[in-house]
Amino acid sequence: MDGVLIDSVTMYERHWRLWADRRGIDREAAIAVHHGHSAAETISLVAPHLDAFEQAADYNGAVAEDPAVDGIRLLPGARAATASVWMAIVLLPYSSS
Predict the structure, then answer these.
(1) What does the angle CA 93 – CA 95 – CA 97 come to, to the nearest 5 degrees?
(2) Which pTM value belongs to this model?
């Protein structure tokens, strides 16, 4: 969904800044390398002295528990695409006799 129907880059960047600030890591370094990498890979690159898997669990937990949706936006055409899928799944099977 991300990158196709929604754009969550701003939300992830906010979480990387929070994670880096709490650990005294260069926040912009984390932002620069996180895209396309798992949290553990990102942490290994920007903070090799930390346990990447432990830190990734903390990072991913914080993201999962965040109730805020600021920083997540629908991409152009997403609403129409999901409406089309809904019609195909729900309405079309009943439209023919």
Answers:
(1) 95
(2) 0.69
